[in-house]
UniProtKB/TrEMBL annotation:
Domain HD: 77-229
Pfam families cross-referenced by the UniProt entry: HD, HD_assoc
GO molecular-function terms, A-Z: dGTPase activity
Keyword presence, Hydrolase: yes
Alphabetically ordered keywords of this record: Hydrolase
HAMAP family: dGTPase_type2
Annotated protein name in UniProt: Deoxyguanosinetriphosphate triphosphohydrolase-like protein
UniProt region (Disordered), positions on chain: 1-34
Recorded family membership: Belongs to the dGTPase family. Type 2 subfamily.
Swiss-Prot/TrEMBL GO biological process terms: dGTP catabolic process
Cross-referenced InterPro entries: dGTPase (IPR006261), dGTPase-like (IPR050135), dNTPase_2 (IPR023023), HD/PDEase_dom (IPR003607), HD_domain (IPR006674), PHydrolase_assoc_dom (IPR026875)
CDD domains on file: HDc (cd00077)
Keyword Glycoprotein: no
Length: 439
């Protein structure tokens, strides 16, 4: 089994041992290819990132934009994952990580994302309460190691998913603990493995020091933060939802800072520090202080996007190198160091997108309808399964050993749906209750 020289042979082991199909490829190149060719990755094209394609209309950025419906060509979960992978591959390479491990982890990090995003996660967590709850990151591990059809293992008598290497699975694990196992907050809703996936989770974490994330997982996580914070603001500007001039107004700034403290930074963070972080970005010569949708404005916005990504990645690279020196960094040899000021700048961008894109009144109405749709869909499947399940999940449902296992199959089925297929399946299963219009 070929692997990068910097990695130990155990890092390239697979849950179900299998021979190389062709010499000259490393185990980690095979991992990246398996994720890239997976149906789960393709399905992310049908899952909204922030701005829904059919709602991109001109907004508060001026008459030139507001006069007509604006085709924002917004990002989906797939395009976000591709962009995250590009950022992660370059950043990982700069540190001497195996670039295929980092890229595969970035491509895989959102595979468990259900229809309607974090909104859908909350509903599925309620539906799945009797079988251990739902968490998108734990669902990603389940897809990679069980659900995504790639290799069927005779010793395990079931699919072993993509059968990735230990190092790649570890790199894709953002929260390396089961539910209730958070090292400092047992009540945290964030976790990385369901109870019935603990055998493979324990295997991939062999040799890991406690709850520490491997270095590649930290690179993946920061690349995710950088990609979505920057691109969500870009999409908001392009769709006409954000007027850059509002970032200079005190009432709007106060609301941004409130959201930062509530969701993206420690509550004790002071407004002075947050104002300084926002002003550092606004003071850059490339910051887009206006946007009218013209080719010139689009090019300037793209340059600002590139500048922000470079700023955030270079700050992490320099700070980490100052701590650990110039040699290759991988697995558990280092911690990714992101300067506090850089984290605050990233957090402020997240809050800007939150306030001006996600908190729009039409979006909250849409999210309410989506929650209702998923709750009804879950109820219909629980009552009518195996009717409504696709062939793969129907077989898993028939093989379920108890009610909890059967419920987990139903949750797996819903999580696998795109936004559109969730609406379609709901319509078919609730055809006796017409009159609903779902957002």
């Amino acid at each position: 089994m070929q692997h990068s020289a910097a990695y130990a042979p155990a890092d390239a082991e697979r849950w179900d041992p299998e021979p190389d199909k062709r010499s000259g490829r490393t185990a980690f190149q095979r991992d990246r290819a398996r994720v890239q060719h997976s149906a789960a990755l393709r399905r992310l094209a049908g899952k909204t990132q922030v701005v829904t394609p059919d709602t991109g209309h001109g907004g508060p950025t001026g008459a030139a934009v507001a006069e007509h419906a604006w085709d924002a060509s917004p990002r989906t979960r797939l395009t976000h994952s591709l962009e995250c992978a590009q950022v992660g591959r370059d950043l990982g390479t700069a540190f001497g990580c195996d670039s295929d491990i980092v890229e595969a982890a970035c491509l895989a990090h959102d595979l468990g994302h259900p229809p309607f995003g974090h909104n859908g996660e909350r509903v599925l967590d309620e539906i799945a309460a009797p079988c251990g709850g739902f968490e998108g990151n734990a669902q990603s591990l389940r897809l990679l190691t069980r659900l995504e059809p790639k290799r069927f293992s005779e010793p395990f008598h079931r699919s072993v998913g993509l059968n990735l290497t230990r190092a790649t699975l570890d790199a894709a694990t953002k929260y390396p603990w089961p539910r209730g196992g958070h090292p400092t907050d047992p009540a945290s809703p964030k976790f990385g493995a369901y109870e019935d996936d603990l055998p493979v989770f324990d295997w991939l974490r062999q040799g890991a020091p406690g709850h520490r994330r491997c270095f590649e997982a930290q690179v993946m996580d920061w690349s995710d933060d950088v990609a979505y914070s920057v691109h969500d603001v870009e999409d908001g500007l392009h769709a006409g939802h954000l007027d850059p001039a509002l970032l200079l107004a005190e009432p709007e700034r106060a609301e941004i800072f409130r959201v930062v403290r509530a969701r993206y930074a420690p509550p004790s963070t002071g407004d002075t520090d947050l104002a300084a972080a926002l002003d550092r970005l606004l003071d850059q010569h490339w910051w887009p202080h206006g946007y009218d949708g013209s080719a010139t404005a689009q090019a300037r916005l793209k340059d600002a996007t590139s500048q922000l990504i470079g700023r955030f990645c270079l700050a992490a690279e320099q700070a980490t190198r100052e701590r650990y020196g110039p040699g290759p960094l991988h697995r558990y040899a280092a911690e990714l160091i992101v300067p506090p000021d850089t984290r605050l700048e990233c957090a402020v961008l997240k809050a800007v997108a939150d306030v001006y894109v996600m908190q729009r009144p039409d979006q909250e109405l849409r999210r309410g309808r989506q929650r209702e749709l998923l709750a009804e869909l879950g109820d219909a499947l629980i009552r009518r399964a195996p009717h409504g399940l696709d062939p793969q999940h129907r077989a898993l449902y028939a093989a379920a050993s108890d009610d909890a296992s059967a419920l987990r199959v139903i949750v797996d089925q819903i999580a696998a749906l795109t936004d559109a297929s969730a609406r379609s399946l709901h319509a078919r299963l609730t055809a006796s209750s017409p009159g609903y219009v779902w957002g």
